[in-house]
Write a structure and sequence with these properties.
This protein is an alpha/beta fold and about 800 residues long. It has 22 helices and twelve strands.
Length: about 800
């Protein structure tokens, strides 16, 4: 409908991108950017060090980023990057999004290299294209030579040689290279796992893997397949492509963090896959940091996988959305862009539906393992082969499993929207990247222009003063650490007192319960949340509860446990709320401490810090309901005691006397007393109360120790990051001043020419920025029209 408008907007975006690339080429030739790829200490920028965006390598990276945006808009391609840890179920999620198995699951990482998965209508069987295979071939040759010099037994001590690795070693020895095309899921799986094993083998043999050769997105492997969820839909004016990215530190490869950030920067949007059961794990935190590093230039969505593993004490859907949007992701994502799902259920359900649509039945479960998994999830673990014969029942079960997976909402809101508006997503991505470039370029160029107007002596004085500030910042870290540790100690002590106070309150409520035989009135509202009004569970005057059969005893104990869990759940909610406030206050206090420590330095270089984009942030552990799970079941184990007690009974005596009594049917005589042992099932209420108190004390002790350790670690890491960022900002300013001094020391004609060149670059940058903002507004207007 809006093809002409999209075409015209695309033409404008191309023009602005070309202009920005020309501007960067101009900057590359200036005397400012012909040097200084090292820091103040003569070290190259590598690892976690980030060079200036306008040093030679920085300009090259920005050019690559803009070239990628130019490629995407000319091809009308929207790239949706999928990022997540190995255990989060990223491959399963991608399979669920596509609707069929494209990335087979494996226990170890499967994404050694970024992989594009492109929706290709009509391509039912996936095909992988790997045209840029030359760097891998060179690696294979190098590994072949190294293997000739390496004993296999020695290698086995450094590397797990399983069947897959053994096959790869044979392949390298025989000189078999990678093909450029693979058709079908299994050949694709074989190719991808071999690439991943190559990473492991290269590390073991100390041969560099050519990751840098695949930094450009056009060089990575591409899988073409029709997305089942998009089959039959009206074709959009654009191309939708998923980008499967390596997880940070995946397979013990720390450099993948940098590769991940580079790939995310090239995406049109990001879909993060998080593990519901591990939302606060270190690995998920690495993913969050990489995503937050992209800033606001890339739209973000989150799938919280494994939501099917939620138990009744776990965070519900709304709590998960609030936790991620407001806390874990620091407010950079809206709650409506967070989707709790079960990727495995979504994948199995949709694959079953797809098979039924194509063949009218499911494959043999004995030959297709996924069918067994589907039957377990959809029909229950007691399913029989005959249950799969009725296609109507199987189809209904698949639909119910799909509904339970909660995958329908993200498919419609993310996948369908991305497919329908791929071109506009690509255009919007280009605008965001252009605006990011122009904002940084204008600050840089203004700094440079101002530097040319300052005398050399003043620049030298500024550099010397700044170097003094850098040394002062390093020494200030020690004094700040003393203050911070004092704050941490106070916070840990306050938390300990807080937990001890709550333990006393919990024990008081437990004692109240056992004194009266029912949940305290002040917790009645919480009890009603369980769906029933709770009365008396037992007579509080009794010390023990005695039953004739074990089943009755179990029912009584279950009632007591349910009431005790009401008490613990009420405490859990209050503790969560108050500890959240405690940690929030501590975070603010620590940030204030660090800022006040460096305030004198910051005041002297405030302008430079602003131009360098300096910012501070300390991320403390977040206390939420998922960390408070009392799970009191263990406290109620083995509390029913079986006792044998004597019971007096009457019986007819043997012999003539008993016979005569039976004849006369007499109840008054002819009986004799005797004793038998009978089983009784006894619950000692004092033992129940004692064991519950012990459980609460043990749980809160572990909680206190765990949270104290988390605070210590988080503050330590936050301190290091804070001062590293501050030092990097100062170093960037120092390099800029040094380059200004170098330029200022040229003859006046050269300085004048450079000044004119910079002024021209500033004008072009402002022009690009102004036109890009207008283009962004036009694209947003078109988005709004499309959604009406």
């Amino acid at each position: 409908m809006h093809t002409q408008a999209i075409f015209e907007l695309g033409q404008e975006a191309e023009r602005l991108l070309q202009l920005a690339l020309q501007n960067l080429n101009t900057l590359k030739t200036t005397s400012f950017t012909t040097q200084h790829d090292t820091n103040y200490f003569g070290q190259s920028y590598s690892g976690t060090s980030i060079p200036s965006k306008f040093c030679p390598r920085g300009i090259q990276a920005q050019q690559a980023m803009l070239q990628n945006e130019l490629r995407k808009i000319t091809q009308h391609e929207m790239v949706l990057a999928i990022v997540g840890t190995v255990k989060a179920g990223k491959s399963t999620t991608i399979n669920a999004i596509i609707g069929t198995e494209v990335l087979p699951n494996r226990n170890r990482p499967m994404t050694a290299l970024p992989t594009l998965i492109r929706h290709t209508p009509g391509q039912r069987e996936p095909v992988l294209h790997f045209p840029y295979v030359q760097p891998i071939d060179k690696l294979m040759t190098a590994l072949q030579l190294r293997l000739q010099q390496t004993d296999r037994e020695t290698l086995s001590k450094q590397l797990e040689i399983d069947r897959d690795m053994l096959g790869l070693l044979t392949r390298i020895t025989e000189g078999e290279s990678f093909a450029k095309h693979y058709l079908g899921a299994q050949p694709i799986f074989h190719c991808l796992k071999s690439l991943n094993d190559l990473v492991r083998l290269s590390k073991a043999l100390d041969v560099a893997f050519p990751f840098s050769a695949y930094a450009a997105i056009e060089h990575v492997p591409v899988i073409e397949v029709e997305f089942v969820h998009l089959a039959g839909m009206n074709e959009s004016h654009g191309q939708l492509t998923l980008l499967d990215t390596p997880g940070p530190n995946e397979a013990g490869q720390p450099h993948l963090q940098k590769m991940l950030q580079e790939q995310l920067a090239q995406a049109s949007a990001v879909l993060a896959v998080m593990d519901y059961t591990q939302l606060k794990s270190v690995s998920d935190e690495d993913v969050r940091k990489a995503i937050l590093g992209t800033g606001a230039s890339v739209p973000l969505y989150v799938l919280v996988n494994k939501f099917d593993q939620k138990d009744r004490n776990g965070d519900d859907e709304e709590q998960v959305k609030a936790l991620i949007s407001s806390t874990l992701m620091k407010g950079v994502i809206e709650p409506e862009h967070v989707f709790p799902v079960s990727s495995m259920w979504g994948y199995l359900a949709n694959r079953a539906r797809h098979e039924l649509a194509l063949h009218g039945k499911l494959p043999d479960p004995d030959t297709q393992r996924w069918v067994q998994d589907f039957a377990d999830a959809a029909l229950g673990r007691r399913w029989q082969h005959g249950d799969l014969a009725d296609s109507g029942i199987v189809r209904q079960a698949a639909e119910m499993l799909w509904e339970d997976s909660q995958f329908d909402e993200p498919i419609k809101m993310v996948l369908h929207a991305a497919h329908a508006n791929a071109s506009m997503y690509a255009l919007r991505s280009a605008c965001q990247k252009l605006l990011s470039y122009t904002q940084g370029a204008e600050d840089y160029l203004n700094f440079r222009s101002h530097g040319l107007q300052i005398a050399s002596e003043q620049l030298q004085h500024n550099i010397a003063a700044l170097e003094d500030d850098m040394r002062l910042a390093a020494s200030s870290q020690q004094s700040a650490n003393v203050v911070v540790q004092s704050n941490v100690k106070q916070a840990v002590s306050a938390m300990s007192d807080f937990i001890q106070r709550y333990e006393q309150q919990i024990n008081a409520n437990i004692q109240d319960y056992f004194q009266h035989g029912k949940v305290p009135e002040k917790l009645t509202r919480q009890a009603l949340a369980f769906g029933t009004q709770r009365g008396y569970d037992f007579n509080a005057q009794d010390e023990t509860l005695s039953f004739d059969d074990e089943e009755s005893a179990q029912i009584a104990l279950h009632r007591i446990r349910a009431s005790c869990e009401i008490i613990l759940t009420a405490a859990q909610e209050k503790m969560t709320e108050e500890l959240t406030h405690l940690f929030s206050y501590l975070e603010i206090e620590l940030a204030d401490t660090l800022r006040s420590t460096l305030k004198p330095i910051e005041a002297r270089v405030a302008q430079g810090l602003s131009q360098a984009g300096f910012r501070t942030n300390i991320s403390l552990p977040v206390f939420h309901v998922g960390l408070l799970n009392f799970n009191a079941n263990q406290a109620f184990n083995e509390l029913i005691e079986e006792q044998d007690i004597p019971v007096a009974q009457l019986r007819r005596p043997a012999g003539m006397r008993g016979t005569v009594a039976r004849w006369l049917n007499s109840d008054g005589w002819g009986w004799e007393g005797y004793t038998v042992m009978q089983s009784r099932y006894v619950i000692a209420l004092q033992d129940v109360q004692l064991k519950l108190r012990q459980h609460v004390a043990h749980f809160l002790l572990q909680l206190n120790q765990s949270m104290a350790a988390q605070i210590e670690i988080a503050v330590s890491e936050g301190m290091m990051a804070f001062f590293a960022d501050f030092a990097q900002a100062l170093e960037t300013i120092r390099v800029n001043l040094q380059q200004s001094l170098t330029a200022r020391q040229q003859n006046e004609d050269a300085v004048s020419a450079l000044r004119l060149q910079l002024q021209q670059c500033v004008r072009i940058t402002r022009y690009i920025q102004e036109d890009t903002r207008m283009l962004r507004d036009d694209i947003q207007t078109l988005f709004t029209v499309e959604q009406l």
